[in-house]
């Protein structure tokens, strides 16, 4: 694959994001197979992980639904061909007006606070609503991606269930789903199952449920030998428990997940060119033609992306600190063992499919890179590299010459 990646950089330039459709399909099928013991399974791909419309269309062909967090993601999903009923809208802290606008599109609404729940239920009691519960169960490898703890801004606390039930009763609103999300990078299956029991217990309060959504956050490996969520074990245990619950509930419900990282992280690689190899008194820097404007996860989350020198994969390993061209601290990796790097070499960052391009910016007025989909043995450009025209597109210039003439 290294030769194909090098050809992609020759054709489309660097930096460039490359995604493999076969890996995405494999991960999707792995998850559906793990829960084959469940009669009705719904996977709603988390659009925020990677929102390119061609990627969304790929998920549509796989039979996926969509998990969205903004009205813009909803609109992208509809444009990609998804039916409204296959999209769930799970925002946080948005206005009532945005939720009402999305509801008019026929999308499944998921509400995570009592204030909006009461307002929406009072005005639109006939619209089916899912409720996002905060189970107060901690998961996640970083505080920024742990959303189930007691101080989280996400979800309605399980300690507020009596008030929640009073709102539902007073408004006579239609609750058709219950949802939770504990956070990303779930490692302990038993912790997740414990949180699931809290969700099952909560679900007993609602008699007209159609689905229970267990969120996602499955951990993927970031390096050789790295630990990951045991999806097969989770499927066997949670699937059986879900079936038992449905039997006690009196009818079959749909088990829903909203995976993002699990489906696209390993499918993505970020290719950069080495501009300079710089030796200091104690460090060898490989300075590349990118920065945290294109890949912010290492700086924001402390995340680790395996870095491979695809121009010299058999070279002698040396220690390098890989840094970007942004004019402040901009470090991708410290003292990392990488095959010997020369100026002009292409480095590949692994696990670059999730929360990488989608969090890119124009900081330092740099262009965001191109995106390429490797599909059926061919490279397909799915987003052009930006130009100066894109940077200036929405800026409005003031003609200061007029002021000078008036003076």
Automatic annotation (TrEMBL):
List positions binding pyridoxal 5'-phosphate.
217, 355
Classification via Pfam families: Orn_Arg_deC_N (PF02784), Orn_DAP_Arg_deC (PF00278)
Q: What enzyme class is recorded for this protein?
A: lyase
Reply yes or no: does the keyword Nuclease apply. no
Ordered alphabetically, the record's keywords are:
Amino-acid biosynthesis, Decarboxylase, Lyase, Lysine biosynthesis, Pyridoxal phosphate
Q: Which cofactor does it need?
A: pyridoxal 5'-phosphate
Q: Is Transcription regulation among this UniProt entry's keywords? A: no
**Ranges for the Orn/DAP/Arg decarboxylase 2 N-terminal domain?**
23-265
Q: What is its EC number?
A: 4.1.1.20
Q: Which residues bind substrate?
A: 297, 301, 328, 355
What GO molecular functions are on record for this protein? diaminopimelate decarboxylase activity
Which reaction(s) does its UniProt entry say it catalyses? Answer: meso-2,6-diaminopimelate + H(+) = L-lysine + CO2
Modification N6-(pyridoxal phosphate)lysine, positions? 48
Domain Orn/DAP/Arg decarboxylase 2 C-terminal as annotated: residue spans = 17-353
What pathway, per the record? Amino-acid biosynthesis; L-lysine biosynthesis via DAP pathway; L-lysine from DL-2,6-diaminopimelate: step 1/1
The entry assigns this protein to a family as follows:
Belongs to the Orn/Lys/Arg decarboxylase class-II family. LysA subfamily.
The entry describes its oligomerization and partners as: Homodimer.
- What HAMAP family has UniProt attached to this entry? LysA
Q: Which PANTHER family match?
A: DIAMINOPIMELATE DECARBOXYLASE, GROUP IV DECARBOXYLASE
Per the entry, what this protein does is: Specifically catalyzes the decarboxylation of meso-diaminopimelate (meso-DAP) to L-lysine.
The name of this protein is: Diaminopimelate decarboxylase
Annotated source species = Winogradskyella maritima
């Amino acid at each position: 694959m290294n030769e194909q990646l090098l050809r992609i950089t020759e054709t489309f330039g660097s930096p460039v994001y490359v995604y493999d459709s076969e890996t995405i399909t494999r991960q999707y099928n792995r998850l559906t197979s793990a829960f084959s013991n469940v009669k009705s399974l719904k996977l709603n791909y988390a659009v925020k992980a990677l929102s390119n419309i061609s990627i969304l269309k790929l998920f549509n062909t796989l039979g996926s639904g969509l998990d969205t967090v903004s009205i813009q993601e909803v609109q992208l999903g509809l444009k990609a061909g998804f039916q409204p009923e296959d999209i769930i809208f799970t925002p946080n802290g948005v206005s009532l007006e945005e939720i009402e606008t999305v509801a008019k599109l026929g999308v499944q609404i998921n509400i995570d606070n009592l204030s909006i729940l009461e307002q929406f239920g009072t005005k639109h009691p006939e619209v089916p609503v899912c409720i996002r519960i905060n189970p107060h169960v901690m998961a996640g490898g970083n505080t920024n991606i742990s959303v189930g703890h007691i101080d989280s801004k996400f979800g309605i606390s399980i300690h507020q269930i009596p008030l929640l039930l009073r709102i539902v009763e007073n408004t006579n609103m239609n609750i058709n789903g219950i949802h939770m999300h504990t956070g990303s990078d779930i490692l302990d299956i038993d912790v997740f199952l414990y949180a699931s029991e809290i969700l099952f217990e909560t679900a007993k309060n609602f008699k007209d449920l159609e689905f229970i959504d267990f969120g996602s956050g499955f951990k993927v490996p970031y390096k050789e030998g790295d630990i990951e969520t045991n999806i097969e074990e989770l499927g066997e245990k949670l699937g059986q428990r879900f079936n038992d619950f449905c039997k006690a509930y009196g009818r079959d419900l749909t088990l829903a997940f909203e995976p993002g990282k699990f489906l696209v992280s390993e499918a993505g690689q970020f290719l950069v060119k080495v501009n300079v190899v710089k030796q200091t008194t104690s460090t060898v820097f490989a300075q590349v033609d990118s920065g945290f404007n294109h890949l912010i996860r290492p700086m924001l989350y402390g995340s680790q992306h395996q870095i491979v020198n695809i121009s010299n994969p058999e070279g002698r390993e040396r220690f390098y600190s890989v840094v970007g061209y942004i004019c402040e601290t901009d470090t991708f990796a410290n003292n990392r063992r990488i095959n010997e790097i020369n100026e002009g070499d292409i480095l590949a960052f692994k696990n670059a499919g999730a929360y990488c391009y989608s969090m890119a910016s124009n900081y330092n007025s740099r262009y965001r890179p191109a995106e390429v989909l490797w599909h059926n043995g061919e490279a397909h450009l799915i987003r052009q590299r930006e130009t100066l025209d894109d940077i200036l597109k929405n800026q409005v210039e003031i003609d200061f010459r007029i002021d000078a003439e008036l003076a």
